[in-house]
């Protein structure tokens, strides 16, 4: 669990650094990126489970409490009390190559998580034909 929180903290930190000169609210922007990762993971898990067990997709209202819970947890962790100084101490001396690789991993992960429901839907459609 600690590794997952560290990963989300790192995504928050990198998103915050990216947004800090582009918006007055970089913490909200960075928290939104973390939320997208979390929520897309939940949606992808539902779609992936559907590959193995045939069940009707939940209605949109099923996901609303999950989204609200994630937003509240992210607000508590990242916005209520800023942890950016602790994160900066932890990652400010990161080597350029490692930072670049991790940045690309974050971008590709976000894109992959967003695209995954379509891919899983195509797999399900092809296997049922």
Q: Which helices and strands, and how do they pair?
A:
Elements: H1 2-19, H2 26-52, H3 60-80, H4 84-91, H5 96-128
Helix pairs in contact: 1-2, 1-4, 2-3, 2-5
Return the domain count: 1
Largest sheet: none
* H and E string: HHHHH
Q: Determine the mean pLDDT.
A: 88
CA radius of gyration: 17 Å
Put simply, the count of helices is 5
Oligomer: single chain
Class derived from helix and strand content: mainly alpha
Quick structural gist:
The protein is mainly α and 129 residues long.
Word description of this protein:
This protein is 83% helix and 0% strand. It is mainly α and 129 residues long. The protein has one domain (2-128). Helix 1 (2-19) crosses helix 4 (84-91), helix 2 runs antiparallel to helix 3 (60-80) and helix 2 runs parallel beside helix 5. It is globular, with a radius of gyration of 17 Å. It starts with a helix and ends with a helix. The model has no long low-confidence stretch (mean pLDDT 88).
Features:
129 residues; mainly alpha; 5 helices; 0% strand
């Amino acid at each position: 669990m600690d590794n997952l929180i560290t990963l989300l903290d790192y995504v928050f930190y990198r998103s915050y650094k990216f947004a800090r000169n582009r918006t007055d609210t970089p913490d909200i922007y960075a928290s939104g990126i973390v939320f997208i990762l979390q929520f897309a993971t939940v949606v992808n898990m539902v779609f992936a489970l559907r590959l193995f067990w045939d069940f009707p997709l939940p209605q949109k209202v099923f996901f609303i409490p999950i989204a609200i819970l994630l937003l509240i947890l992210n607000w508590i962790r990242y916005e209520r009390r800023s942890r950016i100084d602790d994160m900066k101490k932890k990652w400010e001396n990161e080597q350029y190559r490692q930072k670049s690789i991790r940045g690309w991993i974050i971008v590709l992960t976000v894109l992959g998580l967003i695209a995954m429901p379509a891919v899983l839907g195509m797999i399900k459609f092809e296997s049922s034909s």
